[in-house]
Amino acid sequence: MKPIVEKLSPLAAAEPVVCELVRGQDFGCVWHYHPECEITLVLKGGTERLVGNNISPLSPGDLVFMGPNVPHDYRNQPSAGKPVTDVEAIVVQFTPELPGHGDWLQRSSMIPVRRLFQRAEQGLEVKGITRLTATRIVQEMLLAHGMKRVILLLQLLDLLSNSEELEEISSAVLPQPRPGTSDRVSMACEFIATHLPEPIYVADLAAIVGLGKSAFSRLFKKSTGRTVPQYVNELRIARACLLLAETDLTVSQIAMDCGFVSPAHFQRQFREHQHCVPLAYRSRVIQSS
Question: Which residues form the HTH araC/xylS-type domain (predicted)?
Answer without folding.
Answer: 186-284
